[in-house]
Specification:
Strand order of the largest sheet of chain A: 1-10-9-6-7-8
Largest sheet of chain A: 6 strands, mixed
Radius of gyration of chain B: 20 Å
Distance between the termini of chain B: 15 Å
Shape of chain A: globular
Oligomer: heterodimer
Distance between the termini of chain A: 51 Å
Strand content of chain A: 35-45%
Strand order of the largest sheet of chain B: 3-2-4-7-1-8-11-10-9
Order of helices and strands of chain A: EEEEEEEEEE
Number of strands of chain A: 10
Number of helices of chain A: 0
Strand content of chain B: 15-25%
Largest sheet of chain B: 9 strands, mixed
Order of helices and strands of chain B: EHEHEHEHHHEEEHEHEHHHHEE
């Protein structure tokens, strides 16, 4: 029997995905008060300008624009393919990577610059202790 | 004649890249080291330090282990790891020491055993669950596919133009006996090969091979003492890392560190991109090569697609790129790649590249990047006879 019991609630797939006790999940970043650079997650020194203790917590937008993508056909064993690997610039700052879903994995169908929204779902795999994870996906949004 | 503190490649060589599962990393490195020492006409007893580049066994003191096979003379050994820029970093460390006046002659070796390594990269690791396939892809083919798609987004670069890079480099490799493959790959074969990460098909991905390359480098004083007839002058040696860019947490910026390195290298060498006769650049994927035509300044931004369409970067063109066959066909043994590039350019500058010789080559540039992200550039000049 495993020493560690599975958590009763899903865990965030990355530290910058926040799951509040009440309200909806969201992505969290930091913004430098000095140079206005936006980062995923938290840090104390700005990697853009080097300022210390100038970073403010910033709730990132759930909407953005598809910056670029590729369609992955070959990945590691056990990973279902094909899928669309996408980089999205969020409205108001921050760039995240994720899977673009609800669209055919066809380069002719996917338009760079298209508006997308983030949705949050339980990931289809668990870790060794049986923990569930909450992840995010991009899906096409209306402009 | 005034003596400067220039650095020269006195001897340089590489083993034929391939699959050698029965051999060890130090053994492969030792073979390249002996070839380079022979090419220079010196022995390990003449070398005052060893700079050894190897990535996958970075904690294994590979430099010391290869000295066990070629002579343990008690010299300083520095083991370097810097992703795909590992070999070039080892070379540059040697250059730095000679430039500083610390040594007159050192040996630089790059070596890697890659057979069976499979796909590299991938997200996650450590805590939680693997994120590959859930939060996009971190495999190297996907990362460089996305870098290529950024170029498509800006300039409309097509799948066919990316594929033509692979056709060119495979064609070049048919003239290089040290390349892993010497096979022509027509455009329809490249475009029709198994798609790995769109737009990179299998034939647009570099080849995992075992390989080693080595260089004996020395001060100007030593080169004059031993003879300058085949000594290749190192006009510039530059290493950069990635500056902060908006998207660098999600897509490693392979452009900025190369542009920074190129600007510094041209200034150090006192030459312009238009004066180069050949280039060996980091075609880890066909998409990457297109970006670097612009990053290295051999054409204006947005013109890279035209460079490949019009044949300017093929042997016989204005500025041949990857005459060796590149990483796409010669092969990409991570730690060896940087020194193997310097070998290729040196061979042309010495007029010894036979069938693939770039005529009257006087100046050449080598470029590697390692994710994420390091960039090393060297500019080399032909022996002045």
């Amino acid at each position: 029997m495993s020493e560690e019991a599975a958590a009763s609630k899903p865990l965030p797939i990355v530290p910058f995905l926040k799951i509040p006790d009440s309200g909806d999940p969201y992505l969290e970043g930091s913004e430098c008060k000095k140079c206005k650079a936006v980062f995923l997650g938290s840090r104390s020194v700005c990697s853009s300008c080097g300022a210390r203790d100038q970073l403010a917590v910033k709730k990132l937008s759930n909407r953005g624009e598809l910056y670029v993508f590729s369609i992955t056909y070959r990945s590691f064993p056990g990973i279902e393919t094909p899928y669309v690997s996408a980089v999205v610039d969020l409205d108001g700052g921050g760039t995240v990577k994720g899977n673009l879903i609800d669209i055919e994995p066809d380069p002719e169908k996917i338009k760079m610059g298209m508006p997308v929204e983030l949705i949050y779902e339980i990931a289809p795999r668990k870790d060794r202790e049986g923990n569930e994870y909450l992840t995010y996906y991009f899906k096409p949004a209306n402009a | 004649m005034k003596m400067g503190n220039d650095v020269y490649v006195l001897g340089i060589d590489m083993i034929k890249f391939g699959k050698f599962p029965e051999r060890s990393v130090p053994d492969l490195g030792a073979e390249a080291a002996l070839l380079a020492l022979d090419d220079a006409g010196v022995t390990i007893n003449d070398c005052q330090a060893l700079y050894c580049g190897n990535l996958m066994q970075a904690s294994a003191m590979v430099g010391q282990r290869l000295l066990q096979e070629i002579g343990q003379t008690g010299i300083a050994v520095v083991n370097c790891a810097n992703a795909c820029a590992t070999g070039a970093t080892a070379f540059r460390e040697g250059w730095t020491a000679i430039k500083a006046g610390l040594y007159d002659m050192v040996l630089c070796v790059g070596v890697e055993q890659m057979a069976g390594a499979g796909l590299l990269g991938g997200g996650g690791g450590g805590k939680g669950i693997p994120t590959e396939g859930l939060l996009g892809s971190g495999t190297m083919p996907a990362v460089f596919a996305e870098a290529g798609m950024e170029h498509s987004r800006k300039y409309g670069t097509t799948f066919e133009q990316f594929a033509k890079v692979s056709v060119k480099n495979h064609h070049h490799s048919t003239m290089n006996p040290k390349a892993r493959y010497q096979i022509e790959t027509p455009l329809e074969d490249v475009m029709g090969a198994e798609m790995i990460s769109y737009p990179n098909t299998k034939l647009m991905c570099s080849v995992n091979v075992d390989g080693a390359a080595a260089a004996v480098i020395c001060s100007e004083k030593k080169a004059r003492e031993l003879g300058m007839k085949r000594a290749v002058k190192v006009r510039a040696s530059v290493l950069t890392s990635d500056r902060w860019t908006q998207r660098d947490l999600t897509m490693p910026d392979v452009n900025t560190c190369t542009r920074d390195a190129a600007a510094q290298a041209y200034e150090m060498a006192g030459v312009g991109a238009d004066e180069l006769n050949l280039i060996e650049l980091h075609d880890c994927f066909a998409t990457a090569e297109i970006l670097h035509y612009e990053n290295l300044g051999i054409c204006k931004d947005g013109e890279a697609g035209r460079m490949i369409d019009e044949g300017h970067v093929a042997l016989g063109g204005r500025i041949p790129v990857n005459a060796s066959g590149g990483l796409l066909s010669k092969g990409h043994p991570l730690g060896a790649t940087g020194i193997a590039n310097i070998y290729e350019v040196s061979t042309h500058l010495r007029g010894e590249a036979e069938k693939r010789q770039v005529p009257n080559a006087r100046l050449g540039l080598t470029h590697v990047i390692g994710l994420g992200s390091a960039c090393a550039i060297h500019i080399l000049e032909a022996p002045s006879s």
